[in-house]
Structures are given as C-alpha cells and as structure tokens.
Amino acid sequence: LEARGLEPAPEADPATLLRRLHLDITGLPPRYEDVQRFSRDYAQRGDKALSEWIDRLMMQPSWGEHRARYWLDAARYGDTHGLHFDNYREMWPYRDWVIRAFNRNQPFDQFIVEQIAGDMLPDPTDDQLIATGFQRCNITTNEGGTIDEENLANYAADRVQTFGWVFLGMTTNCGQCHDHKFDPFTMRDYYSLAAFFRNTTQGPKDGNSKDGRGPILVVPSDEDRPRWKALPAEIEAAKAARDDCRRAAKADYQGWLNGISPEDLGEPIPTDALLAHLPLQEGSGDTIGDLTRADSPAAATGNLQWESDDLFGAALVIQTGKTLQLGNIGDFARDQQFSYGAWYKPKDKRTSGGIIARMDEKNSHRGWDLWQNGDRYSVHIIDQWPDNAIKVSTQDVTVKPSQWQHVFVTYDGSGKPSGIKIFIDGQPQKLRTDTNSLRNDASIHTDTPTRIGQRSHGAVVAGSRIRDVRIYARRLADAEVASISQVAPLQIALGVPEEKRTDAQRKALFDYYLTHHHPQYAALARRVEELEAEQEAIRARSPITHIQQEKPDSEPVAHILIRGQYDQPGELVHAATPTALHPLPDGAPRNRLGLAYWLVDPANPLTARVTVNRFWQEVFGLGIVATPEDFGVMGALPTNQELLDWMAVDFREHGWDVKRLFKQMLMSATYRQSAAVTPEKLEIDPHNALLSRGPRFRMDAEMIRDYALAASGLLSSRMYGPGIKPYQPENIWDVVGLPSGNTRNYVQDHGENLYRRSVYMFWKRMAPPPNMEAFNAPSREVCTVRRERTNTPLQALVTLNDPQFVEAARKLAEHALQAESSPAAIAQYIGRRAVQREWSDAELVVILDSAVQFHMYYAAHPDAAQALLSVGESARDQRLDPAQLAAWTMVCNQVLNLDEVLNK
What we know:
The chain is α+β, with helices and mostly antiparallel strands.
C-alpha cells in the first residue's frame, strides 16, 4: 500500500465486523441482540472477545454447511448424471460427508487423501469410502450410440482437469491434445496423471440409474448400522450350518430318489380354462408346440435362438425380431379372471420389457402384460395409459439376473390393484400400486396378438430366457401356482435317466428333497432366507453413494491419445506425477494412494498454496492469486507472494488446521478494515487486490436465499439428507428432459424442505435452480474454483418476485406486526431483523412513506392484497389486516433488496 501511496482503511465498527464474521463463518446473518452484545464485549475486551466469538461461531454446524458449499463447486457435485437423460444420481451422502468433515475440522491433508484414495487406505471406514465420491462427481452418460472407450477417456479427462485445478492450480487440461503451450506440463505428464484415474472399476455407462452401475456403498441409518455390520457374519454362520446339514443328508437322499416317480411329486394342475401351454422344450427350429392346441402352434416372428440349459435341457433365448405370438389367445375383458406366467431367466436388472403381453403400444398401450421393470416385476392392465389403467410392481427387488424364476400373475377381474397377485417361485409377493385409475367402463380388448418376449411393437426382453408359458382364463389358487412352480422342472428331471441328468437337475431334485422331506434342513434354510431378507430390507431402505474402487491386480497405465482422440492411442505410459515437480515420496505406491500422499508431501510446492489461496478468496472475494485454477504463466501474479508463501507453510506446519487458518485471516487487521472506499482507492485499487479496505462484495446465490429465510424466521436448521426441491417455475425441467427420464418433471417439496439451507438444494446439472443460476451459481458440470460475479436485472427480478423471497418478506412483515403496533416500531423491528441495526431518521421517513403508499393501494385493491399474501405455503396469520400485511410485505420486499442486505 505504501508503495502505491495508499493507507489501510480504519477498522470497521463492531456491528459491521460481527455481520461480516457471521456471513464468512456461517453464511448467515447475526441476530440484532448478538450485534449489541458483541459491540459491548469488543469494546471492553478487544481481541480476546473477538477470538472467543470466532471460536463460538466456528463451533456452529452452519460452519460446515457454509464451507462445504465452496468445496462442492470444486468437486462438481450434483444430484444428476449430467448428460442425455440427466437422471437422478444418488450420492448426497458425499455432500453430507463434506459438511461433517469441515465441522469436525478434519486436517486438510487427511481430507485430501481420503477423497483421492480413501478406498485404498488399510481397512477403510465407510466415511473414507464415501469420501472417494469426490472422483465420482463427474458427469456420465448412458446415451445409446456413445462409444465406451470415448466415455472412459472423457471421465479420465474430467478427473485430470479437476485434480489440476483443485490441488495444483494448474490447467492440466491443456495437455490433453498437445504439450502445454506455456507451462512445463507435457502430454506425457497429462496421460501419466490420467493413468492414476483409469485403473478403476467404474464402467463407461451409468445405466440412467441412481447407482450409475457402481461401484457404490450402501449407507444405512444409525439405527440400522449395527445390524448391517453384524449380518454378514450371521449369514455366513447360518449358511455354514445349512450346508453342513446338506452334506450330511446325501445318503438318505439317494434312498428317497430311488423310490420316487414323477407322479409322486404332486397332482397335475387342472387344465380347465388353460388357453395356452408352451413348454418351449424344442431346443431348435421355429415351430413351437402348444399342449392345448396341437394343431395350432405358436408363430415365431423370426429365426428363433435356442441354447442348452442345465435345468430345463433347452431354453428359448428372446431376441429382437425373434419372439413368439399366439394370435387371439388372451383377449380378456377388464372384469374377467385370468392368470398367466412362465419360467423366466432375466439377462440383467436393467432390462425393461414385456415377458408376456397382449398390449397395443400404438393404441394408448391398451391390454395387459407381465413386465420386467428393471429390478422388479410389474403388471399393467390398461385401457388408456396412464389415465385409465392399473400398474402394480413388486415392492422388493425381485429380479435375479441369470437365475431361473417362476413368475406368475393372477387377476380376479375386480379392476382393482388388490385383485392382482404376482408370484415368484410360487410365493406371493408384496406389491406396490404405481397407477390406479382404471374405470369400471374400461375395455382392455385389443386386436394385437398376445406375444412372448415383447409388447406389440417393441419393449423386447432381449437376452433373457423363457420356458413353460401358461395362460389361463381363470384365476388360479395360490396352491395351484405353487404347484406349477415346484413340480414342472422336477418332473422333467425325473423323466431323464439319472446318468443323463445335468448338474442343475440333480441339484433341483436334491433341493426338493431337503425342503420337503428332511427334518432339519427347512428350518436352517429358512434362517438363511430370513437373515438375507433382513439384509436386503436394510439395503432397500438405505441410501447409496458412489465411491471409487481400484481394479484388483492391475497396474495403472494409459495410452497417450494422439490429438486427444480416444480412437488414436499412442505410446503406453505408466502412472506418474508431472516431471517438473517432485517425484513420488520414497516407498509410495504408484497408484492413487501414492498420488494422494504426493499431494500432501512437504516437498509439494503447490497444494498448500493453492488451498490457502482459495480459502483467502472465500473471505476476501479475490485470491492473492486471482486465478485460483491457474498459478502458471498465463495466470495472475500473486499480489503478495510473501504472504501466500508464509501462510501456506504455516498452514502445513500446523497440521493443515482449517479453522486455525481462517481464524488467522479473520483476526487480522486487514480483515477488520472498513469497506468504505475513497475515489483515490477506487482508481488505484478498484478490485481491492491490494487490500486497501475491508472485503465488500455481493453475496453468492445460496447466501442471498439463506439470508432472506433467516431474516424472515423461516429458515430450518435441519441438516443432511436427500436434495430438497423448493419453489421453482412450473415445468422448469421439461425442456431439457426426455419423456422416460426420472428428472423430467420437477416435483416441488412441501413443508420444512421449502425452507432448508441452499447447500441441500437438488442440483440438476442440465437445469440448475434458476434462482441460483441468476446469481452465478455454476451448473457443476465441470469443476468450478472461482464463480463469476455479475450484476444483471434478472437478479433483481429474482429477489423481488421469486416466491421464496416474497414469502420471506411476508413472514418478516407478520413477525413485525405481531411484535409491534406503531408504524415506526414496526419499521425498526424490520431493520433489526434485516440489517441488524435501526434505521436513521431519514431512512425511517422513506420506509414509513412507502408503507403508507402501499397501504393505500392494497386497501383499494383487496384482491391484489390476497394474491400477494397467498404466495408461499407457510401459514398466514389470519388475524392481521390483509391490506396492512400486504403493505408491510412490500416494504420488507424492498428492504431485502437493499445493497446492504445483498452485499457482505
């Protein structure tokens, strides 16, 4: 400053200082009462009082919420995959981990190591695994036609760029296609870094599912966690007891087998009302026999594909263009009873398609079906979808890939979801009702034929296997369904000479003996099933989160991609750190764990500097290096290099203590300066890069929203959990959503979730919350370590008209009217809540004049008052005069738009 002919600004008054501290530490404004108390305390005890107040504020949970917000930008955290469908991605436990890490003041070197390689630490805890979600926050895709290798290359490129910007202050992304033009960073360096991140088990496509096709971690609640941890050992012990019994039973089993015949397994199911029975046992060819109509075989839609099968001997493999149709069989009425099902071997849990269907997709999906719905089974009975239809689905995950399951449906003709049953292996399943709109006059008749393996024009369960299809024009009893599921494969097995039976057939017969004729085995097997069901129930009700996982027994390598093109692989390189920097520490593994230790090694000249600079930016609005992502030749020079060097070393040598670092900044005379600016300073130091005054700049989007909620008394202190969905414009997601995407329609939350902190807002990357985006919040499609700060008319339109802000103004007005009676007292109450001070006489005149003008208008326009007061879902105090409340609501709306409110 002296060199530029400037002097520091005087110290800010205590009220300004405490407000600044509150906003920088918690992201929320102080209470007026605290401002008064601090002012007295600071006047009496000075620095000691300031130190204690900073410590108390840093102990509040809101410290972690506020600090996490900046990190989540850098981590490019979002609640959707980011491309194509942009479907839901469940990894909010990572966001909560970040908040908790800051609140427990985790040493920042550990914070880094766990996010880069928590999965590779010895016996990693769940928290250390959750931390690796930092790497899994990149955008992913499941778009058809994309090339797997290209996707994987893009994922690695994102991680190298994020790694460089966040930890090194290097534009590493410039090395993707060529050597860096300005910094000592080559293509070899780039792909050597990429190798660290390519040796993982993450697949190239995310399946448009919340688990992204893994790897994931189940995160049970605190109540479920003890059982979740104990269950694996209990299941293992129960299986050992069951298997011991199984081995001991083999001698008695042989005697039973020698005396059994197919007829002994059960009575044949009555064939009355059996419309079709296709064993699908041919094993070759395109002619399919129907045991109910020998002269009318089912018609193949193409050259059928068969394969040998251990359990059934042969099975039909469903493929597109290679399915079956049964003509007019199954043209049922809404009020008619019927049953249908088959033995089914699903390819995977991602398939959605028709197993058995008489459904016309081009006529509002009229008809009925048995549907594989990903990892569950569903039944549709439809006149017109979705307005005149029923859909039920198994409540639990029931699809078992690559395993035979007997899946059967019975319907009682009632037209109600309760009239449908879905059986798996003879057992009725718990169902959930997804759609219940079928009317009494509905018709499910359709001219489209009944098909096996698809609906009328598509939805093929390609790659899945099927046997023993049956369709009945009556509702089978539960016992009949159970008998079909148990008897059919066993009778087939018994009909085969013992020396020609497959291993699967021998196992099926032995299993039947154990469960029906052995005195102890059934109870032991049931115990295993109970424990596994308990485990699955916890899994089903628990959130998941995406984690990173190293490929076992694989060396991290990558090809240098010529011009950065995924299909032009060049030289193979091994994982290594940039050659211009220090090597990996002695003895460090050449993997992500070694890379993490390299980052926090005392020899690393960048990590601590880049981190301290970014924290400085959070407080002062501008980093000592104004380009936090680029410390290189093309980046900004540090305005005070000695200070940055000293702080970085001090930070590292004092245990990477984040709270201590922030306290150093907040206690400094530089921070405590008044933000008042002179014409001279505005000319010489317009951006306050020289720190000639205290920090003053417009707050970030989340802080502006949270401030209004706090001032109004609406803000909820509830922490953690799934992303919240407060007010947004109607149909805001439609224009970027695909019809079958699960984030096409924005479904607003209600109640407390409308008023929680913005760090918990659901972040759809292709359509971020518009009231956040207007204030420069990023989409988080890529890493962001520095938000732009603009001033546009759209921002004023948000704070003046967004329901969140209008409602906040109403609630603030309500509190004022409930607490005070005279206009002047009401106005001063608003000032104490909104700006933590009382108005001057001149300000009070303006505010009271506004209140009078607004009251005159709303008294003459009661409908306008009611419309204003109806904004927002919080209850309104009906005792208050509508015109008066509307008038003060508008005053509060104006106050919450003051620069004094919107700026730190």
